[in-house]
Amino acid sequence: MKILYVAEIVGKAGVHALKKGLPELKQRYAPSFVIVCANGATGGNGLGRNHAAYLRKLGADVLTTGECGFYKKDLVENLGRLPYVLRPDNLNAAAPGYGSRIYKAGNEKIAVAVLIGQSGFSRMHGDNPTARLPVLLERLRRETPYIIVNFHAGATAEKRTLFAAADGHCSAVIGSHGRVQTADETVMKGGTAVITDAGRTGSVNSVGGSEIEGRIREYLSGIPDWTREAYDVPELQGVLIDLKPDGTAASIIRIRHGVPAMPVPPAGTETGDNGEAS
Known about the structure:
Layout: E1 2-6, E2 8-9, H1 11-29, E3 33-37, H2 49-58, E4 62-64, H3 73-76, E5 85-86, E6 100-105, E7 108-116, H4 129-141, E8 147-152, H5 156-166, E9 172-176, E10 186-187, E11 193-195, E12 200-203, H6 212-221, E13 234-243, E14 249-258
Parallel strand pairs: 1-3, 2-12, 3-4, 4-5, 7-8, 8-9, 9-11
Antiparallel strand pairs: 1-13, 6-7, 10-11, 12-13, 13-14
Helix pairs in contact: 4-5
């Protein structure tokens, strides 16, 4: 079984890169299942309801989120009716939506789960992910040996610790949140594929998908700035994981797939909570 994980989509450039790049990658690699991190798809922060439906239409089998998962009210109100959208699993039980689910991948079942780290997030606080992991994996293994965990965390040490705890107990743990692709993809001794950060899908010439000058102003002034999206040099990033019949990983490779430039929206065009230009 081949799993294609598309790294965090950031804004319109990210949606454009998925639209243009995913068909070619599907033709080249023939993945059985496509996971798309959509945490920053709408305006670079969060996921709107309309964008969720559109990304699904473009070919995503499941959309994962992170600390921005509850930023858009129209998505939050519908999370319980969107089984293809996952928020972090290690939240309070009262949180809406799903943190993990079993999906069909051809004739097989595959489990996908999201965990959020505990370092650096001010608006979302999860339970200890390393403590939650064994219970989560034990439950999912009752259904399938194919288990993919998206670990959305800010601290490299926390990610590497969870990788070690997960090794041999799931198929892969894919790091996200940094929006910069790391070069440490590997299959660990126990057969679990890992990468500290799969990167981002969006503008390469940017700061995490945001317009460069705005980020410089933010760091010089100390004033938080909801920066403009960047559009220069769009690229689809991610990883392709090949799984054995027993659920362990045979290989993991990084993907960087450039796509044609996109038309830049007129000045003053903003993205509303529903994922449409307003």
